[in-house]
Amino acid sequence: MSSQPYVRPISKTTWYMRNGRYKRYMLREVTCLLVGFYCFLAIWGLAALAGGPDHWNSFLESQQNLLMVSVHAISLIYFLIYMTFDWFKLAPKAMPVQLGEKKLPDRIIVIGHYVAWAFISLFVFWLAGVLT
Amino acid sequence: MTIAKKSVVWGLFAAGGTIAAFVFPVLIALLLMVALGNIPEGLRYENIHAFATNWFGKTALFVVIFPALWHAAHRLRVVFHDFGVRLDKAVANAVYLVAAIGTVMTAFYLYVI
What we know:
The complex is a heterodimer. By secondary structure, chain A is mostly helical. Chain A has helices at about 20-30, 30-50, 55-60, 65-95, 105-125; strands at about 100, 100-105.
């Protein structure tokens, strides 16, 4: 009798390419690179802000080129699809709301997230003086 | 990892992910406006400086950046594993160290502004 169990050969580096679900999982997971990138961009901005008006203005100027326009535009779309909307979609699974015997319907939780998101976005735009 | 440590990391991951999901799109949109040369009033030096010098602004900035950093670090650790890197201990130390450095830098700059 053989004591060697059969191990299906699965690539450690490309396993997620076999299945659409896994691909989508990986597309979602790599959004952490964007979160990290924007955190450190924010920290760089804070350093510039602490350095005075000249530093702050050169920080703003450093964003004004075609490369950064593309980076921000592509990041925004990618982030919305694979981070924000996916996070909202998964919210009822991660945080189900129980009301007595019943569960709050998933749809209500998801809609609640979108409404809160709209308010928060408007509030930040208002804070930034975009809405006057 | 002990359960207690795991829950702290998980709590920060969930909090950071929620915060990032809610506020990062609008913040990236503001940066896109800057990149396009249409600088929002609130990002002009006097305004953003006033925002970052009062306690509300400082708290808001810290509460956004700090959990998001740890969310990114934790998720990146898992991504390394998913891409076939089997050095979890080294990866974990590296990503959490970067997040810790980022946290200290955020606190420091917010303090000196």
